[in-house]
Amino acid sequence: DMAGMDHGSMSHGDMAGMDHSGMNHGDMAGMDHSGMNHGDMAGMDHSGMNHGDMTGMDHGNMNHGEAAALPADPFYAQGSGLIPQAYNDGRFLSYADLRAQKPLYEDREPTREIELRLTGNMERYIWSINGIKESDAEPIRLQYGERVRFKFINETMMTHPMHLHGMWSILDVGADQWNPVKHVISVAPGTTVYMETEVDAPGKWAFHCHLSYHAAAGMFRTVIVEGGPEGDDS
Ligand SMILES: [Cu+2]
Question: What range does the record give for the signal peptide (predicted)?
């Protein structure tokens, strides 16, 4: 029983070649190794070590150095540090992987493009589109039957999940007729994302960031679809 032993002043000197095969360490609970000097341990041979079961280890804080091997993803800004990284040879899915199960509309050229810069200031809690909050903005007027291409440019440091009511948001992932058909388009910081809308629902619709505080602060537009079978142009 070696409980309570104090090795504080031991000098291990040159121990090369020592044979410890017959040592019995018994109960070593409570030993004080605080003063041990391990000197130069270069060249130690750990080849026979058995680490047993290491499942469940948490590597959350490991630093793997440069992430240079990451493929570019247009839905995350390069250098933003926001690109998800998968471990164990896995892969995170992104918008770039989405496809429509079946196309809802004929794939055709858009009739026009509307640019919507997502703008704001976190510290001052100002949220707007093209620098103008809803209460100061004109509605977006669309014509029934057109196909509008929206260009979102996120100039802020937050993701904005943009939601157009009443009509589909067809996210441009470069898959043409297989582009996914969505309700909400999340636009990551520093990215430019395109979506197209077949304007097939007459009337007045909300178009807003789905973070409700952003919508309430002014990251919101009224969309008016003019014309159409039940259109109300007033
Ligand atoms: Cu937002």
Answer: none
Q: For residue 210, how far is its CA from the centre of ligand 1 (angstroms)?
A: 6
Ligand 1 centre distance from Cα of residue 154 (Å): 10
31 occurs within a structural domain: no
The total number of structural domains that make up the chain: 1
Q: How far is CA 44 from CA 15, 22, 40, 41, 47, in A?
A: 12, 20, 9, 6, 9
Domain CATH code at residue 148: 2.60.40.420
Q: How far is the CA of 138 from the centre of ligand 1 (A)?
A: 19
13 C-beta neighbours (distance < 10 Å), count: 7
Span 68-105, pLDDT tens digits: 455 588 999 988 888 888 888 888 899 999 999 999 99
